[in-house]
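Hi R.,

Here's the chain you asked about this morning:
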Amino acid sequence: MKKTFFFSALVIAGTLILANTNKSATVRDGFVNGTPEIKSISALAFGSDGILFVGDSKSATVFAIDTKDVQKMEKSTAVDVKKIDQKIATALGTEVQNITVMDLVVNPLSKKVYCAVQLADGTPALLRVEGDNISAVNLKDVRYSSVALVNAPAEDAKDQRGRPLRGMSISDMGFFDGKVMVSGLSNQEFSSTFRVIPFPFTKPHYTRNHIKSRKLLQSPGTRILKTNSILSTHRHQHPSTQYSTPSRFLRADA
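And here is the predicted structure, written out as tokens:
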């Protein structure tokens, strides 16, 4: 009887370990070791298991970075950093007037804050905020994967006022139900676009009809992604899919 119980417990434990291992491996399918060529950071979003998504408008690419920041913090504490802009500038060795904070996002596991900053010369920086401590996130020799956006504005495209459009190819991002959701501009007639990209990025493309996509976007407990106009629906032989919606607000996970 004792042997049977011990064997059963061993099988269950082994199954749980294998399941967790497979889950971790699946999330990181397609990842490589190296230094991602990130030209800008327009938006950030966290996925599962410490994966940070970085939206790079200049290269019209979404990067998935393995932060290895997976130590779970059950209870979060309030973050109130006085004069954070000055502290960010100091951490980057520059003056406050030379930085622009592009986005802030919280790792749901560790509760640490990640901050995207752009310097006056266009150089992007990714920082981690832990209490009063602000430090640069290492992006050299990391595990990562990436996917290029389809139909992104050309690098030299400009609007009627002469403003470059490529920098607005990604305006916001979210992650929900295994999908990266990206709002921004495209090179289509109705330029405001919402893309849904299955993750990992190795998965094949898919399409959804208008009703199902709206049901997905309006799931409860989500945050709002802003877009500018009614969109047309497009299909692509690509891991990303563009959706249409009659609303000015599209939802993705918090």
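One quick note: Residues 1-24, 205-254 have pLDDT under 50 and may be disordered.

Cheers,
M.
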